[in-house]
Amino acid sequence: MHLLYVFSSALSLTLPFTSAVVYKGFNYGAGIDFLTSFRTAQALAGTSGFTSARIYTMIEANTVNSPTSAISAAITTRTTLLLGLYCSAGDLAFLNETIALTAAIEAYGQPFVDLIAGVSIGSEDLYRASPVGIENNSPPGDTAQNIVKYISQTRAVLNNTKNGIATQVPVGHVDTWQMWQSAQGISDIIAAIDFIGVDAYPYWQKDDDNTPDNGRTLFDEAYEATVTASQGKPVWVTEAGWPVNGSTFGQAEPNVENAKRFWDDVGCSKLFDKVNTWWYTLQDLPTADGAPSFGITNAIDNTTALFDLSCPGNGTALEPSGVGIGTISAVVAGSTSSASAASTTTCESGSMHSEVKTTSTARSSSAESTTYTTSTVTVAPTPPSNLVRHRRWIRSTPGR
Which is the catalytic residue, given 60, 97, 106, 124? Predict the structure, then answer.
């Protein structure tokens, strides 16, 4: 059942909307068979309505800036998409993301745009750049200043689409619930976006009595803390789940029974069909290091999950913040109209990707950056799959 929530308080505000869809789906890494995966999600035994997908990059695996094949699979299966633009590899790597986004809109047009739930600029970039992320040997992250710049560039791309077909697409950022409370520059990001994407995993909170019995309480605390910090922006749950196998972390035991309990206590009771949610995950990548696996199926074509996906009851929904659904319109401080100028840019030092040469065109602008025009530049390819599948590193709760 699709429900429409409009919630208003001192911490949240009502924004315009054009759709009453509540998104429900899974997260998907790069380089997979999206068509089979999306069909499996829609046909899972014991449940229904998992018709949305969150992806981490606009770029097809093993290409420089070709649009992801997730788009054609989504159009075929009528799967909505929470798009991701990877933003922790420097300006030119992000340019590739915007090139892929522009090319996808031009190639697929309105049928693609109609399926876009939103666009996330980055994923856990602030966490990876935080002291805790660095201590846990996370891949490189990024600063709030850069993320705000990339948000502005992405809005320029969306606003410059033919006939303005993508101007109403919501733009947001995804990070851990702790970062939404306290990260340096977080208020600037919140001011620049239409929605907040929060990742919350009680499993990783080893300092917080993270027993399976306490999973629902810890998740509720994480969600409510994010709502409190949201400045009235809608909060979407972009990652949540419990591992089906792996090592015990703190007091959190990963097994099928506890994954089922978390699915029931949090997914069924709090989120599904109530708050925009992308569960982690349909199928996890194989791990050779004993890292926990969060996949609810053991093969992308297996519609029978590792545990019963049926929900025991309706439960008590979390109260959605703002308008957590539909298309959101917002005026963003700091965004500017396009400025025409050719530019020569070099890749950031310390970029984690090898460099290749390409000739390409993109449209983007912001108060901090110059419009890119057709030129030959040094660019970085899509993030490697082991980075897109970022749950490999350990997270603990900072400051608690």
Answer: 124
